[in-house]
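U., I forgot to send this yesterday:
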Amino acid sequence: METTIAHPRTRVEASPRRVRVRFGGQTIADSRRVKFVFAGPRGIPVYYFPLEDVSREVLKESSRSVEHPGLGQARYWSVQVGDSTALDSAWGFPEPIAEASELKDHVTFRWSDMEAWFEEDDEVFVHPRDPYKRVDVLHSSRQVKVVVDGVTVAATRRPNLLFETDLPVRYYIPKLDVRLDLLTPSETHTRCPYKGVASYYDLTVNGKTYKDFVWYYPTPIPEIPKIENLLCFYNEKVDLYVDGELQERPQSPFA
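Result:
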């Protein structure tokens, strides 16, 4: 990838991936020459599309204008297809700062307002997949024990360890090694661009219920098959022992 430095905390890159956006039942953007924009040293990337690769008739003028540090003054549009409207959900930079000049005549969309996003022919959830982020899953023989309110709720010598850039190690445990009698299926589902769609359990210990305390991936994306149907607890919220040693609770967005 060819990189342009737009700001000490922002960078712009050309991406080789074909990216499509759907809204209101139709494809409103389809490009093989999108730009990755990374905001901040660990910022989540954002796709910017050349205006030529966007259905211009769906963009409706908006009065909103916002200054984006490191990029310039953003102009906004609402997105409208038939009876479906997403207010102020698209924006671009008519006159970006010199270091981000590649973004002139480009537009991006608020991810959560769109119906679906695709990288090539695979649907992607939450945000673009960062090409510099790694997710590795390794079989392990470490002894892992999870304790909540003094009760051992899981203990195993056959965990799978998931290492994900910028996040704590996650210990995925076979169901046979978890106190399933303490778990109640939750209706919650979340999505991860690197792992797929997660389902959850509530945990009840000593009469207290912890909502969405355990998660698993029934059908993870093909790149991450080793965690299929294994259970994971938030390191940030439990007493986690690895090889008999109590682990420090990490600070993360999930603490």
